[in-house]
Amino acid sequence: MKTRWLILALALLGGLVFFRYQRPACAPPLTPRQVAYLRAHYSREALRYFSQVAFGNDLGTLSPTIRRWNRPRVNVRILSACDSAERHEVARILHDLNAITRPTHFVVDPHAPPDLKIYLVPRSALSQVFPAADGTANGSFGFQTSSCGEILSATVAVANDLSLPGWKQAVLREELTQSIGLPKDTDRYAKSVFSSNRQIHIEDPDHSYVQFATEFLPLDKQLIDILYNSGLPLNTSLTDFSAQVLAP
């Protein structure tokens, strides 16, 4: 009888240890010290713009909370045929990101299992990567996260048959940047990588021009820096961020 109770006790203890190990170590809510740091190190406009692109997504399918990669290395692989110019552009964008995301580096590795997968395919084939694509998008991204908001894997697909100079590069920069935890578009700044207007080809009787964000604005860099270097906890809610960081 004692043996039976001993076995049961050990099983329960093992279960508790397993549960504790498996239980997500979610970060605590924003602290006054973190709020003070954000207000002291970033402009109010950068914080306001951050609140527009870092919480939830345009489809309304994600809860309005912070998500990001939370590991020192993210293995990246291009899983479609591509030319040297496309490989160079991926490397250039990752170089720009790595200069900002100091705790996390995105590394193209053809041998390691990929954490971040990239597909460069004709626009008509985007739906093969993302079946929900409606046929009008020039690129898409998606990520899977833990219950605490850590990005575990991500996929980016970009049309490689866009005709105008800089168009493909701009879409690739946007989708890669959104896949690291800044998933929303806005129309606040036309030349921002997060602008919903910057892929538009505008024509008028006198001339035509494009608004393609093939580089990060200084403000874009601030948003990436807030996400990865400010100590902002994973799963911080938009409500909490607005009430504490954006409060008058």
Structure description:
This protein is of the alpha/beta class and 248 residues long. It has a domain at 67-231: Collagenase (Catalytic Domain), CATH 3.40.390.10. It has helices spanning 2-22, 32-41, 44-53, 84-98, 126-129, 167-178, 218-229, 238-244, and strands at residues 73-78, 105-108, 116-121, 139-145, 151-159, 201-203, 208-210. The strands form two sheets. Strands 2-1-3-5-4 form a five-stranded mixed β-sheet, with helices on one face. The protein is globular, with a radius of gyration of 21 Å.
Question: Quick summary of this structure?
Answer:
The protein is of the alpha/beta class and 248 residues long.
Instruction: Based on the coordinates given, report the CATH architecture of one domain.
Output: 3-Layer(aba) Sandwich
Number of helices: 8
C-alpha termini separation: 66 Å
| Net shape | globular
Average pLDDT figure:
85
**Fourth-level CATH superfamily of one domain:** Collagenase (Catalytic Domain)
Radius of gyration: 21 Å
Overall number of strands: 7
What is the succession of H and E elements? HHHEHEEHEEHEEHH
What is the CATH class designation of one domain?
Answer: Alpha Beta
CATH topology of one domain: Collagenase (Catalytic Domain)
Helix content: 25-40%
Q: What is the beta-strand fraction?
A: 15-25%
Low-confidence stretches: 1-24
Structural class: alpha/beta
